[in-house]
Every structure is written in structure tokens, then in C-alpha cells.
Design goal:
The chain has 213 residues and is of the alpha+beta class. It is built from 1 helix and 11 strands; from the N terminus they run H-E-E-E-E-E-E-E-E-E-E-E. The longest helix is centred in the first third of the chain and has 54 residues.
Length: 213
Amino acid sequence: MAGRCARGFTLIEVLIAMAITAMVATLAFASLDQTMNSAETLREQGERISEINRAWSLLSRDLSHFIDRPVRNEFGATVPAMFGGERVEQQIAFTRVGWFNTLGRQRSHMQRVRYVLEDTTLYREQFQVLDRTNETEPQRVALLENVNLMEFRFLGDGIELAPNEIETENWPEAWGLNGGQGVNTVPEAVEVRLELEDWGEVRWLYELPQREL
């Protein structure tokens, strides 16, 4: 019996196979690129949520430990236990209690903290002493970036908070300032509003503890 000759691929068959392989590779690369972009987007969103939660947790903790203790500033003037609002360039400052002293240093268990918005970054500042001098410098930590605006509203004495019916539009936007509300008193509650570049408006409402020395 005569042997049969082995038959190879034709040029057209090779070109078709190469075209199919290239198409499959293109689709696989596009799918992989989309998956990687989605994973990166989810990672960035997760980090952003963690940053927002961290800022919220620190602010909530500080305000939940608020105490009615005025302080002296670096000029020797008495400053209310809390002041802030539209006339102090987007910041709020107040005294809090419960400053842990794990090293057993000779210092107060109270602390003066301040939240400041500068160049779209929200900072938390803390002072090592309550009554400051010209040499007293705060310790500053950046909490949240891409913040376009920070505003406050304060609830004065004599108004009760009703559950699920909280309207803050008529609350004063400044507290503890000369010519403003609450120069010698402390607010019942404070609303903090942040305008984030990517998440829009975020509002937090805190009912303050009425602690006194």
C-alpha cells in the first residue's frame, strides 16, 4: 500500500488561527484591565470611607467628652469652653475631658482641641496645656483631604431635640464669640457640615454632655 503524505496547515488556516488568538487575547486583556481598574476604584473608595470614618470617630469622641471649662489663650484673654462658626475661618475649638495619661505625667486630664480647615484639608489640633502662652504650639494631624467647606450650627439653651424631627436651619452659625451667641454659655448640641469634593455634603449632629467643673 502506498504511504500517505502528511498534510500541513495552509496559509489561510494559519492566518485565521492567528486572528482568533489575537481576538481572544484582546478580549482577555480588556477584561483584565477592567477588573484591575474596578479593583483600584474599590480600593480608593475603601480608603476614602476609612478616612471619613476616622475623622467622624475622632470628632465624635472629642465632642462626647466636652466639658464646660474656659481657657486662656496666648494673649491672656479668657476664651469660652467652646467657640466656632462662620466668623472664625471655618474652625471649632473646645475643651474635653478624659485625656488618657498612660505615662503618668503631671498634667491635667482635660485637653483643648481644635478642628481647622485649611487648603481643603481638615486638621485636628491638640494643646498640651489648657491655658496657653506665646510659646505654646499645637500638635497637628491631617484628618481628611478634599474638603471644600466646613460649617457649624449651634443649639442654644431652652430648646429640646425632638427625635426624627430635627430642623437646624434657624440655629446660630457662630458660638462663643463677641457679638455672637453663647459668649458665657455652652450649646446643647452642635451640627457639623462638611462639603466633600467627591462625596458631596456630609452632616453630623451631636448632643453635647452638660458637664461642669
